[in-house]
Amino acid sequence: MNLQEYKDIFHNGVWKQNTGVVQLLGMCPILAVSSSVVNGVSLGLATAVVMALSGAAVAPIRTFVPNEIRIPVFILIIAVLVTVVQYLMNAYMYGLYVVLGIFIPLIVTNCIVLARVEAFASKNPAAQSAWDGFSMGLGLTAVLAVLGGMREIFGHGTLLSGIDLALGEGTKNWVLHVVPNYNGFLLAILPPGAFIGLGLLIAGKNYLNLRAELKRKSGADVSPLQASPATN
Amino acid sequence: MKRIARSTLQTAANLVFFAAIGTAVLSSTFFLTHDEIVKSEEAEKLKLITQIVPPELFDNDVIQDTLTIADDPLLGNNGNTVAYRARLKGEPSAVVIEAIAPDGYSGKINLILAVRANGELAGVRVVSHKETPGLGDYIELPKSPWIKGFDSKSREVYKDADWRVKKDGGKFDYVAGATITPRAVVKAVNKTLQYFASNREKLFVVNTVPVSKGKEK
Questions:
Q1: Lowest CB count within 10 Å: A27, A61, B5, B23, which one?
Q2: Which of A62, A94, A104 is the mutation pick for testing B, counting most B CBs within 10 A?
Q3: Residues A192-225: tens digit of each pLDDT
């Protein structure tokens, strides 16, 4: 219960074990809703909320649930929480609910939620579990935001389009037209664009990791591209 | 034997217990949010309807003044759809009908049309479609004003042969390279107007049994 522990959990969720670019769990929503920043961030945050709640809900009961039926019970809890989030979004963020549509109920089937509940919340206290779920969710949100931003700029030449669906009519003029009179680039909007973008993100993350490691080893800031190939 | 039976029962009881808690949480959320959900769905519907039926055309509660339409080959719908009737001082002024263009480039195109009592189109909108993004999607209003080309057209003004895209000798614009999409929409709109012409009286019949507020489904 010390600060360092929470810091570690956070670092683990957002960077080291990032669900989007390291664990590669939850591909279905990543590829489907990352067509714009607003869609990506909204679904990412919804997932983070579900993960935090399910972590908090599973951890206190982890000792009562018989081992044989823990998976059905966990899935039941996650499904209930997702449906609650879905009702709330339907009631208070209707526009966004329509846009995200089928992907909200599909949070249940996102392996990352069950994976964290099974791997972390079923072995740790409630507060840490909630924090772990939320950090993992934030990591996913970050990937969705960057990927959504890339696809939106290349595909439509805008950023933050559809923000009024999430934050209300008043924010309509927040939309940035990065490239004026852009004709659109179909590949970025269609699913292959998501695969290519995700591939680039993974490569970027590996590059940064490698650079940090080389720096740690040699003490100098060397670019991994110039360094000799890794020994392994 | 007895021990196995007991542990099985215990496990089952455990699952039932969690299922009961889950159900309780879900049903209370459902009841807490239900009114709000109905309200936002109606607001959204009204927003769509007022886009194609000018507000000065009606003073009734359009959302509640509904009529169930059975499926009809002219509308292309599968199963019942709901029509909304706009009235001004009790007189029928327009009806909002859903229709489906079955022959889009990639599947069905769902349309919503408002037809004035005199058979003139008040407006047409695409509700959902799967046409190619960036190519066939100019039938959507945010992408292009193409769909507004239907405004105030009727089968009086345009004869049957005019209800085609210009490439096929009709009166409607199209974008080169994406003709299948507008062709399907124009055809569906024309067929809906034919449906309206032959069902006009039926469409404006006043509900004898008032539809209850907040009706589900």
A1: B5
A2: A94
A3: 888 999 999 999 999 998 888 888 887 766 666 6
**For chain B, how many residues are written?**
217
B18 in Cβ contact with A76 (< 8 Å):
yes
pTM equals: 0.71
Report d(CA A150, CA A144) in Å as an integer: 10
Q: Mutate which of A90, A164, A187 to test chain B, going by most B C-beta atoms within 10 A?
A: A90
Q: Are B17 and B24 contacting, i.e. CB atoms less than 8 angstroms apart?
A: no
Cβ neighbours of residue B92 closer than 8 Å, sequence gap 6 or more: B85, B86, B117, B204
pLDDT tens for each residue of B49-70? 888 888 888 888 888 888 888 8
Task: For residue B107, give how far its alpha carbon lies from the nearest alpha carbon of chain A (Å).
Answer: 17
Kindly list the strands in the beta sheet with B91-104, ordered across the sheet, starting from the edge strand earlier in the chain: B66-69, B81-88, B91-104, B107-116, B121-128
| Residue A172: DSSP 8-state | G
Interface of chain A against chain B, CB under 8 Å? 64-66, 68-69, 72-73, 76-77, 79-80, 83-84, 87-88, 90-92, 94-95, 98, 184, 186, 189-190
Contacts 24+ apart (CB under 8 A), B64-73: B64/B210, B64/B211, B64/B213, B65/B207, B65/B211, B66/B207, B66/B211, B67/B203, B67/B205, B67/B207, B69/B97, B69/B203, B72/B195
Instruction: Give the Cα separation of A191 and B131 in Å (integer).
Output: 15
Burial, B1: exposed, middle or buried (Cβ in 10 Å; 0-12, 13-18, 19+)? Answer: exposed
User: Nearest residue of B to residue A99 by CA position?
Assistant: B128
Amino acid at the residue B11: T
Radius of gyration of chain A (CA): 19
Q: Is the pLDDT of residue B72 over 80?
A: yes
Cα-based distances in Å from A205 to A14, A151, B200: 12, 18, 64
Task: Tell me how far CA of residue A225 lies from CA of A161, A207, A208, A228, in angstroms.
Answer: 36, 8, 11, 8
Determine the Cα–Cα distance for residues B161 and A208; give it in Å rounded to an integer: 64
Closest to B11 (Cβ–Cβ): which among A69, A88, A190? Answer: A69
Q: For A130-180, what is each residue's pLDDT tens digit? A: 999 999 999 999 999 999 999 988 888 888 777 776 676 667 777 777 777
